[in-house]
Backbone:
């Protein structure tokens, strides 16, 4: 898909994306003059940890994602694809290398990525591209194949997060999605018109435990959330493998960490200690004004 680049702000940028999904946009070089040898700019946008049904072009009855729907309508929408290892680190390693998890070595979130492997950013560098990475990395090793990178340490935090910029760590005030977007926009504006770029824009949201920016807290108030068709499925007619898996929301959700509710008063599942500590750590990153 090819579109023209015009002056852009964070608000417009986020609006154009809708609520976020793994997307690929290809832009002409920043200069209005094109040569036969010019190569398209590439912006790869990745959101984290939501089902395909979270996007309205894939049938969501809750979220409205008109701009992602437009990308799907004007570009390509995959309907017969699937993820072979749907965890944070393995998915990212597959994206970078084009190899299955057992070949690139990242079979789970505990394994560090071997950055000496061939990756598509390295290939683009050799082809003359300037490359950059923003946001969630989560591969337990420093990025390679990028001329510039500014990433979250590990999973990262939603509020006032730490960033590691080219090896240097610092804390920033604000909401993580806005900060990642601002960093990427600033870098894009700095690129020379006679050089093609590839930027990987990796958001943390909407990864569990679902902590929105304050301005979005009331977004779904008054909305009816339809139950999925499989909500009451007891797997009685499924295979032994399916029946033995813990696939019920009630068995997996933690009232404090996920729903921000007190399990003692709701009768729900108590929050495991490590999750309770993690939720409190996230909330404690807010300053007093932000908490209000």
Residues:
């Amino acid at each position: 898909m090819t579109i023209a680049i015009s002056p852009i702000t964070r608000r417009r940028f986020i609006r154009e994306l809708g609520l976020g999904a793994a997307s690929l946009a290809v832009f002409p070089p920043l200069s209005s003059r094109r040569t036969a040898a010019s190569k398209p700019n590439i912006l790869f946008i990745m959101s984290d940890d939501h089902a395909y049904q979270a996007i309205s072009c894939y049938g969501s009855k809750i979220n409205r994602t008109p701009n992602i729907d437009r990308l799907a309508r004007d570009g390509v929408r995959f309907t017969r694809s699937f993820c072979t290892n749907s965890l944070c680190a393995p998915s990212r390693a597959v994206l970078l290398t084009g190899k299955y998890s057992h070949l690139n070595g990242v079979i789970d979130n505990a394994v560090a990525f071997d950055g000496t492997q061939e990756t598509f950013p390295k290939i683009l560098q050799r082809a003359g591209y300037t490359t950059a990475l923003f946001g969630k990395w989560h591969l337990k090793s420093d990025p390679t194949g990028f001329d510039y990178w500014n990433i979250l340490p590990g999973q990262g935090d939603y509020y006032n997060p730490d960033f590691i910029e080219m090896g240097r760590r610092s804390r920033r005030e604000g909401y993580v999605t806005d900060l990642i977007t601002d960093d990427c926009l600033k870098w894009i504006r700095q690129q020379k018109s006679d050089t093609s770029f590839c930027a990987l824009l990796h958001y943390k949201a909407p990864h569990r435990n679902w902590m929105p920016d304050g301005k979005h807290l009331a977004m779904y108030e008054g909305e009816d959330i339809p139950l999925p068709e499989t909500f009451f499925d007891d797997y009685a007619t499924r295979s032994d493998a399916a029946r033995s898996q813990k696939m019920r929301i009630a068995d997996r959700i933690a009232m404090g960490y996920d729903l921000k509710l007190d399990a003692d008063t709701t009768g729900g599942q108590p929050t495991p200690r490590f999750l309770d500590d993690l939720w409190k750590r996230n909330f404690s990153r807010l300053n007093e004004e932000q908490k209000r």
About this structure: Residues 1-7, 13-23 have pLDDT under 50 and may be disordered.
